[in-house]
Amino acid sequence: MAQSSYQSPSRSQYYHEFLRGATTVIPVMIGVIPFGLLLGAQAAQKGLSVGLLSMMTGLNFAGGSEFAAVALWSSPPDLITIVLVSMLVNSRHLVMGASLAPYLNHLPRRKALPALFFMCDENWALTMADATRRRAAGQDPAFSLSFYFGLAVTLWAVWLASTTVGALIGPTLGDISRWGFDMAFPAVFFVLLKGMWKGIRCAIPWLVSLLSASLAYHSLPGAAYVPIGAITGLIAIVLMGAKA
């Protein structure tokens, strides 16, 4: 990464961009809170301690893999299966990181690596949309690090707090999924996908992965739907690329 071209923004610019990021993420944050409460409650019902859950959600900022880990949790836990499924669910971060990397080239590693630590689906989508707008407006650099940290740190703190609160009050509430909290996660993703829509052709791998995973979920035991959904989506991408 080129370090010599990076110039730190002034303190007023940094706070302005940080606040812009923190306010931009508010609509997503509202959808994340019930999602975090649900994860915390489910983790408590599976026997995970509050401290263990907080450490997991704080160090592994990826809700999909955390739900997969909690769903697979048992006593004693099958750690190999949990780790492998979590890695597979999080493998999408390889593609997300690769797409974000060109926007980080001007940053020193001491700032780029923490940015990647806080990367999640929501932060990535909002940042890419903002970078696209800034580039179209002729702003250089297109990537605003302070904007990114404003939305990323805010969402991370809310996620950590909501999962912790869910774990604390979950045992007294019972199954809170009956209130529809589990719909918050897909609702947030549908909004993000709408912002990234580039036509039907680009959506075909998503559809293939969705249908394959859904079929596997209802017909195969365990977490087989996770690798099936990922692999079929990748196969669709390869086949579409070969025909292009």
From TrEMBL:
Tell where it localizes. Cell membrane
* Cross-referenced InterPro entries: Brnchd-chn_aa_trnsp_permease (IPR011606)
Alphabetic keyword roster: Cell membrane, Membrane, Transmembrane, Transmembrane helix, Transport
Entry keyword annotation includes Cell membrane: yes
Membrane-crossing residue ranges in chain numbering: 18-40, 52-73, 79-104, 142-170, 223-242
Q: Which residues form a coiled coil?
A: none
Q: How does it sit in the membrane?
A: Multi-pass membrane protein
Family label: Belongs to the AzlC family.
Q: What is this protein called?
A: AzlC family ABC transporter permease
Native organism is Rosenbergiella gaditana
The top of its lineage is: Bacteria, Pseudomonadati, Pseudomonadota, Gammaproteobacteria, Enterobacterales
